[in-house]
Amino acid sequence: MTAERIDASAAGEWRLGDRVVRRMGFGSMRLTVRADRERAVEVLRRAVELGVDHIDTAAFYFSPGGILDGQPGTVRYATDLIREALGPYRREVLIATKVGPDPHPDGGWGEAVTAAQLRRQVEENLSRLGVEALDLVNLRIVRPIGPEETAERFGALAEMRAEGLIRHLGLSNVGVEHVDAAQRVAPVVCVQNAHAVDLRRHDALLRECGERGIAFVPFFTIAGPAREAGAGLGTDGAEWRIAAARGVTGHQVRLAWTLQQGEHVLVIPGTGDVAHLEENVAAGALRLTEDELAEVDQRR
Ligand SMILES: NC(=O)c1ccc[n+]([C@@H]2O[C@H](COP(=O)([O-])OP(=O)(O)OC[C@H]3O[C@@H](n4cnc5c(N)ncnc54)[C@H](OP(=O)(O)O)[C@@H]3O)[C@@H](O)[C@H]2O)c1
Q1: Which atom of ligand 1 is nearest to 28's Cα?
Q2: How do residues 221-267 score in pLDDT, each as one tens digit?
Q3: In degrees to the nearest 10, what's the CA dihedral of 155, 160, 164, 170?
Q4: Candidate of 121, 219, 233, 273 to mutate for ligand 1, largest count of ligand atoms within 8 Å of Cβ
Q5: What are the helix (H) ranges across 224-268?
């Protein structure tokens, strides 16, 4: 099942604030580590050609240590690739970015916690993407924080939204208590957390987001717990048995199962490979039966 005749519209749409996006999006993080520059640009352009209009990124998505395809090279930023591939941007493409994590030159991670630090990160995203306003900014939490700190940081972003630097706000790597705190400050259009058929610790939050009309945007949909463990992708489990019977791939079943968790669930599979991209987009047209959904569900 490939995307020859299937485009991103097959997955349906969801409203993010005043914008409507297709539920089949694209995650740009992996463009900085595996793909060569030309291929990364090609993947991004092909995604938009296939109707993908929700692209996830961050200014801190860059090739760690300047290593590209296993070879030392110059540092490559996902945001720069997006600007090169898609600028000047078409109005219908929504680029979601995130602030919070603050990579150190030694490879460790800090965290932007003050209003001034968050503003510098927003400004970096504006200049790298080459836009006057960011469509969507997720506040990505790194270390555990309580409601007051959440409200402070989200409030700093809400001020930049009021200034016109940001259009919509979301949260990432959070629990329901962070969503509560942020919603008291400003509208939350999406929550981006790790979630997959075999990565289910945010099941309840996924449902809660649906009840509140907030988009739930899972990452690691394909990679699952392997990504957190730094391992390769598995090809076992119910999704692969179903895939063999349906003539699709297990990755497509994982994406279809995720999309069927709720109309408010938007996927952002990441790839540096055009054929994988086409396969992922085509998964938007795959509908699992109740029995197949239940079989995959047993992975939890
Ligand atoms: N908010 C956060 O904290 C956070 C954290 C992580 C990621 N994210 C976002 O979420 C996006 C998705 O996360 P992710 O890229 O780590 O995980 P993912 O989308 O679940 O999986 C990506 C992995 O699957 C492979 N893949 C993708 N499509 C495939 C296909 N059709 N067949 C075979 N392999 C396939 C990719 O390799 P190939 O390149 O070889 O296809 C890559 O190894 C990221 O790009 C990023 O935008 C957000």
Answers
A1: 45
A2: 999 988 765 667 778 889 999 999 999 999 999 999 999 999 999 99
A3: -60
A4: 219
A5: 225-229, 238-246, 250-259
pTM, full prediction: 0.96
Order of all β-strands in the sheet with 94-99 = 26-27, 54-56, 94-99, 134-140, 166-172, 190-192, 215-216
For the Cβ of 100 lying below 6 angstroms from any atom of ligand 1, the answer is: no
Distance CA 48, CA 25 (A): 10
Q: What is the mean pLDDT of residues 46-57?
A: 98
Q: What is the set of domains in the chain, with CATH numbers?
A: 25-192 (3.20.20.100)
pLDDT at position 67: 60
Q: Is 192 in the pocket of ligand 1 (CB under 6 A)?
A: yes
77 labelled catalytic: no
The pick from 240, 258, 271 for probing ligand 1's pocket by mutation, whose C-beta has the most ligand atoms within 8 angstroms, reads 271
Tell me the CA–centroid distance for residue 240 and ligand 1, in Å.
Answer: 18
pLDDT digits (tens, 9 = 90+) for 124-161: 999 999 999 999 999 999 999 999 999 999 999 999 99
Residues 60, 146, 263, CA angle at the centre, nearest 5°? Answer: 65
What average pLDDT does range 26-33 have in this prediction? 91
Return the percent helix, strand and coil in the chain, to nearest 5: 40, 20, 40
CA dist 82 and 270 (Å) reads 14
